[in-house]
TrEMBL record:
InterPro entries (UniProt xref): SAM-dependent_MTases_sf, UbiE/COQ5_MeTrFase, UbiE/COQ5_MeTrFase_CS
PANTHER family registered for this protein in UniProt: 2-METHOXY-6-POLYPRENYL-1,4-BENZOQUINOL METHYLASE, MITOCHONDRIAL (PTHR43591:SF24), METHYLTRANSFERASE (PTHR43591)
Annotated metabolic or biological route of this protein: Quinol/quinone metabolism; menaquinone biosynthesis; menaquinol from 1,4-dihydroxy-2-naphthoate: step 2/2
UniProt EC number: 2.1.1.163
Organism: Winogradskyella haliclonae
Protein name (Swiss-Prot/TrEMBL): Demethylmenaquinone methyltransferase
UniProt-annotated binding residues for S-adenosyl-L-methionine: 68, 87, 115-116
Chain's role: Methyltransferase required for the conversion of demethylmenaquinol (DMKH2) to menaquinol (MKH2).
Organism phylogeny: Bacteria, Pseudomonadati, Bacteroidota, Flavobacteriia, Flavobacteriales
Gene Ontology MF, one: methyltransferase activity
Amino acid sequence: MSKSVKPYKDSELDKKEQVTKMFDTISEEYDGLNRVISFGIDVKWRNKVVQIISDTSPENILDIATGTGDLAISLTKTSAKEIIGLDISDGMLEVGRQKIKAKELDGIIQMVIGDSEDLPFEDNTFDAITVAFGVRNFMNLEKGLSEILRVLKPNGIFVILETSIPTKTPYKQGYKLYSKFILPTIGKVFSKDRSAYKYLSESASVFPFGEELNNILRQIGFINVKDKPQTFGVATIYTASKA
């Protein structure tokens, strides 16, 4: 089980409620700051996820913690006829809806408010499920992953894109410097919610990655679990399937 980190340490709200509040607050600025924080490399990582999904020729896809819909929009490059983006933050979803409408993708992508730990779908519904930078925000990681396994079709593919920590010198030291000092400073200067970017940094530092997350996925019941570190290990793409 991952260590729990919350956005607002003095709040009596639980993690799920705090994460919802945080993303509602930063929804309008999220896309721009995300590009700055990742130096735009997150676009390259998402494209790799799209290629992995595309290779399986899915008819329908669920993108959990879809946020403003960046990955859901990119997934229209696959053969999928239906893409559902789900998130607990209506503020983030509304930004996504505007982007989808501007790109005239309303007929393919549907943005749905919902809880990743209580998915509003029948068993064995989706050919492919993705989560980009969202699993570390689950209040109960194991419950969320179990729900994903439930709604994934047998032989379907599940792909996670999540931050991780480099293990080799000098990338390990550089990452610690960036996440401890630079990332929170960017958030403090440019964001209306200073706690948000401190939380994003802290949650990444304690979240299980690599073989530790692989083992959690296997314990939940996923098969064919693999991890592919990206950009010196600052992010990792995980793939898994359902028997």
